[in-house]
């Protein structure tokens, strides 16, 4: 009678050998993978300078330049510029090629307001590890003054001044009471370093109307214009560092005439939005 008992030990030996081979191959593959990962070369990226070419401040929408160096193995490779938004890093769309002297230059236009953090990163490849360098800046932005009004007589409107159209102006109608001065107060909330505007009359004002304009920062007058008539205008820029509130005043020199006086395109340079 046929029986399988005599070949059972041999069968078990074959199975054991097959398992041993499988385990050996698996170990070899894993070891090979670890070795491949460990053979990637280390790279480095540094930021040497981060500057605004025209000013000591970074201003939204104007040029900025980042310069830096890298390790020798990144010659000819590209580094990318990323911006931190919340907890994520997002692409700015800007990149630069590393030169034969291991340097790079990134020219771009930052946009926004307040603190921003950028990083220059080499993304890595099959043979090279990624690397990066980070830098934070304060970004300033020119914003409209009109929405910051606290109280007063002036209001937002458009004007034609000395042949130019301004869609954004702070105005008042000069009439019999205007020789006492019309004014409004605006918040800067200690967040702004400059204020600028053009002053004058709307081109539809009476020919005899003359108006004087003043700017006061926390009660201190820093600008007083000459008496300005129709067809003329003047501009000013004043430092507002450490200022909480600004007052704009316009005063008619003769209440016999009528017309609109205006602070045209009034803007403030700020690192954050003042209270409204």
Detail the topology: elements first, then pairings.
Elements: H1 8-38, E1 45-51, E2 58-59, E3 64-70, E4 78-85, E5 88-97, E6 103-108, E7 114-122, E8 131-144, E9 149-152, E10 155-161, E11 164-174, E12 182-187, E13 192-201, E14 210-217, E15 220-224, E16 228-229, E17 233-239, E18 245-252, E19 259-270
Parallel strand pairs: 2-8
Antiparallel strand pairs: 1-3, 3-6, 4-5, 4-7, 7-8, 8-19, 9-12, 10-11, 11-19, 12-18, 13-17, 13-19, 14-15, 14-16, 14-18
Structure description:
The strands form 3 sheets. Strands 2, 4, 5, 7, 8, 10, 11, 13, 17 and 19 form a 10-stranded mixed sheet that branches. It is elongated and about 90 Å long. It has one helix at 8-38, and strands at 45-51, 58-59, 64-70, 78-85, 88-97, 103-108, 114-122, 131-144, 149-152, 155-161, 164-174, 182-187, 192-201, 210-217, 220-224, 228-229, 233-239, 245-252, 259-270. Mean pLDDT is 89; it is low at 1-7 and 21-35. The chain is mostly beta strands and 276 residues long. It has 1 helix and 19 strands.
Low-pLDDT stretches are 1-7, 21-35
Order of helices and strands: HEEEEEEEEEEEEEEEEEEE
- Average pLDDT reading: 89
Main pleated sheet: 10 strands, mixed
Silhouette? elongated
Helix tally equals 1
State the share of residues found in helices, binned by percent.
10-25%
- State the end-to-end CA separation: 103 Å
Q: Which band does the percent of strand residues land in?
A: over 45%
Give the C-alpha Rg: 34 Å
> What is the number of beta strands?
19
């Amino acid at each position: 009678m046929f029986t399988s008992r005599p070949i059972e030990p041999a069968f078990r030996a074959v199975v054991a050998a097959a398992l041993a081979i499988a385990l050996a191959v698996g170990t070899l593959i894993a070891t090979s993978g670890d070795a491949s990962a460990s053979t990637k070369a280390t790279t480095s990226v540094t930021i040497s300078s981060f500057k605004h070419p025209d000013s000591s401040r970074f201003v939204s929408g104007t040029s900025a330049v980042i310069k830096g160096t890298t390790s020798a193995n990144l010659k000819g490779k590209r580094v990318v510029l990323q911006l931190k938004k919340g907890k994520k890093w997002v692409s700015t769309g800007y990149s630069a090629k590393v030169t034969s002297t291991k340097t790079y230059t990134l020219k771009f236009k930052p946009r926004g307001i307040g603190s921003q953090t950028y990083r220059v990163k080499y993304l890595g490849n099959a043979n090279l590890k990624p690397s990066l360098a980070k830098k934070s800046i304060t970004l300033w932005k020119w914003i409209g003054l009109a929405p910051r009004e606290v109280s007063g007589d002036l209001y937002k409107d458009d004007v034609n001044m000395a042949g130019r159209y301004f869609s954004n102006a702070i105005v008042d109608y000069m009439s019999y009471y205007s020789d006492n001065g019309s004014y409004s107060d605006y918040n800067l909330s200690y967040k702004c370093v400059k204020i600028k505007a053009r002053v004058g009359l709307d081109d539809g004002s009476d020919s005899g109307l003359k108006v004087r304009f003043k700017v006061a920062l926390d009660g201190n007058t820093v600008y007083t214009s000459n008496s300005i008539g129709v067809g003329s205008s003047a501009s000013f820029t004043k430092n507002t560092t450490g200022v909480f509130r600004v007052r704009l005043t316009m005063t008619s020199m003769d209440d016999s005439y009528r017309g609109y006086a205006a602070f045209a395109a009034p803007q403030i340079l700020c690192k954050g939005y003042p209270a409204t």
